[in-house]
Write a structure and sequence with these properties.
150 residues, alpha+beta, 4-stranded antiparallel β-sheet, 4 strands, 15% strand
Length: 150
């Protein structure tokens, strides 16, 4: 089965060579570096593992190594950015970013180009309306009274 990117309930914005994805269902924001963004954008159900490896070599100047694609697909699966039902690498086949960098002998700028995702939990609209203090939107202790009790 060829990898297929998830498209539903996602807002996608390209920003300075990276891709920012907001998952509306999970309220998470994922920042994909250029290498991971390239892999994700080519997970169309038609692009093979070997083609993804060649893409990283051609466009990102990274070694054509299946470990890089395995790492990228693992990160995309962990971030829920692949279609449900896509095969996931087992723990034995799931490389860490550090292991891939060490194995391939990458240093400096090339190490920064290795696929990476940074994810954060975004506040829900209800959380955002509280102003982050959990005390209601007015920030006055949650009961609507000011400091003098009125």
């Amino acid at each position: 089965m060829l990898p297929l990117a998830r498209q539903d309930n996602l807002l996608v914005q390209e920003l300075l060579g990276e891709v920012v994805v907001y998952d509306q269902g999970r309220h998470k924001v994922h920042k994909l570096n250029p290498a991971l963004a390239a892999v994700w954008q080519h997970c169309d159900g038609n692009t093979s593992f070997a083609d993804l490896s060649a893409l990283l070599q051609r466009d990102m100047n990274l070694p054509a190594d299946p470990e890089l694609v395995r790492l990228a697909l693992s990160q995309l699966a962990d971030a829920h950015l692949l279609q449900a039902g896509m095969p996931r690498p087992t723990d034995q086949l799931r490389p860490s970013r550090r292991e891939v960098i060490r194995k391939l002998g990458l240093a400096g700028g090339l190490a920064l180009a290795v696929p990476a995702v940074a994810s954060i939990i975004a506040p829900t609209p209800a959380d955002a309306s509280t102003g982050g203090n959990g005390q209601g939107g007015n920030g006055q202790g949650g009961n609507g009274q000011g400091a003098n009790g009125h």
